[in-house]
Specification:
CATH class of one domain: Alpha Beta
Shape: extended
Largest sheet: 3 strands, antiparallel
Number of strands: 3
CATH architecture of one domain: 2-Layer Sandwich
Strand order of the largest sheet: 1-2-3
Low-confidence stretches: none
Structural class: alpha+beta
Mean pLDDT: 81
Number of helices: 3
Order of helices and strands: HHEEEH
Helix content: 25-40%
Distance between the termini: 30 Å
CATH topology of one domain: Double Stranded RNA Binding Domain
């Protein structure tokens, strides 16, 4: 273990839950009943959508740069994004990748493949003054 502290983001959905409860109460007061979910239809829709989708895996590199972050995908040329945080740079890059790859598929082209992987390594060097 590297001894670094990792920040974990926690989604606080309490406002969403409260808003949903208020809307349900408002609709009930007006005599509007919430429709019962059709799980069988939803499951069939998910299965059909999954059968028409293909997953692609890409290595994404995110580096600090000029006071922000630069994200890019080595396997896909010209897909670079910048953001104030790593998450913002990643989100922007994913939007660009989706648009780029979707355009390739629509034109009948095959998206590039990425069989690579990224790894962080530590290299120990003798301590001392730089020369």
């Amino acid at each position: 273990m590297s001894g670094k502290t990792q920040k974990i983001s926690v989604l606080d959905d309490s406002r969403l839950v409260e808003t949903t409860k208020r809307f349900r109460e408002k609709f009930r007061a007006q005599g509007i009943e919430e429709p019962k979910p059709d799980f069988a239809a939803a499951t069939e829709g998910w299965k059909a959508k999954r059968e028409t989708m293909k997953s692609y895996r890409f290595v994404v590199i995110i580096k600090p740069e000029d006071g922000g972050y630069h994200a890019y995908c080595p396997a896909v040329e010209d897909c670079h994004a910048r953001g104030g945080t790593p998450q913002e740079a990643r989100t922007k890059l994913l939007d660009l990748l989706y648009a780029h790859l979707s355009a390739l598929v629509e034109r009948g082209e095959i998206p590039p493949s990425d069989d690579g992987f990224a790894e962080t390594v530590n290299v120990l060097l003798p301590a001392g003054e730089p020369r």
